[in-house]
Amino acid sequence: GPYCRNSIPSAPLLVTNSSTVTILFNSTSHRSGRGLLVSYATSQHPGTHYTQEHVSPHPPVTMCFSVYCPAGCKDIHGDIWGNLRQGYRDTSVLCKAAVHAGVIADELGGQVTLSREKGITLYESAFANGLRSKRGSLSEKRLIFHKACDDVLEVVAFNASSWWHEVDVLGQDRDWVAKRAALSTTGHSWAAEPGAEAAWLELDLGTRRNVTGIITKGSSEEHDYYVTSYHVSSSRDGKNWRPYRGSSGQEDKVFEGNADSQGEVSNAFIPPIIARYIR
């Protein structure tokens, strides 16, 4: 400290070897406030970043937890194994895994709900929300994070600023049009016209929806093409666009994309986007 009103501390994450923290309040007599919120996580027991444990009606099948994670857990020392779809090895740093799963924003922290269920043989590595998890072996238990919404949204139509009309070495035509941008499409994907600047891909969801995240993947058929970073903007009418700025709200957020053409990369929208059109 000191931590003063309306000022952001340069190092909001305090690391200490002590088991005690003393807070001294010093204010003038004519000023009142709500006080101070302190949350903590221990690095000594990386799988137990919580203070309360609630056992479900049918133990030992599932153990449910409600955990408060502080901001800045992305940089905590320790590893995570697994991904949001499979769950995480129970020895993973819990709150760091919550950032990877996209249930909290690292700059905000927050309450997360998860359960401890039966472990699996192998946990696959994944890159999500700026973190790379490890490939992990069998564990007795695994951590499952519960998200309010994880359904896959249907895209009614794709549009793009441009598309590449390719003529290959054999003289054959290949169109890298916008509709080929769907994640499940086999073969080549969408690509902007070579040399095009400020290229964009637009998704029409048909009606206004609650969008909580995005998954991107490169085009691996004969090419090693992928997007390394991108901005997101949204619109309710297809005419007026609002850039996504994330929880900070200060500047347009740059999402970290793919590092190769093979793997999928997830990024969460916290808070979510409510819109019909996404670019």
Overall mean confidence score, pLDDT? 84
Assembly type? single chain
First-to-last CA distance: 42 Å
CATH topology of the largest domain: Jelly Rolls
Share of helix among residues?
Answer: under 10%
Rg result: 22 Å
Q: Could you spell the SSE succession in H and E letters?
A: EEEEHEEEEEEEEEEEEE
Keywords: Disulfide bond
InterPro entries: FA58C (IPR000421), Galactose-bd-like_sf (IPR008979), LCCL (IPR004043), LCCL_sf (IPR036609), Neuropilin_MCO_CoagFactor (IPR050633)
Organism: Irena cyanogastra
Domain LCCL: 58-143
In short, what is this structure?
The chain has 279 residues and is mainly beta. Helix content is 3%, strand content 30%. The chain has 1 helix and 17 strands.
Word description of this protein:
With 279 residues, the protein is mainly β. The radius of gyration is 22 Å and the shape is globular. About 6% of the residues have low confidence. It folds into two domains: 82 residues, Ferric Hydroxamate Uptake Protein, Chain A, domain 1, CATH 2.170.130; 122 residues, Sandwich (Jelly Rolls).
Throw out a few tags for this protein.
mainly beta, DCBD1 protein, globular, 279 residues, Ferric Hydroxamate Uptake Protein, Chain A, domain 1, seven-stranded mixed sheet, six-stranded antiparallel sheet, 2 domains, Jelly Rolls, single chain
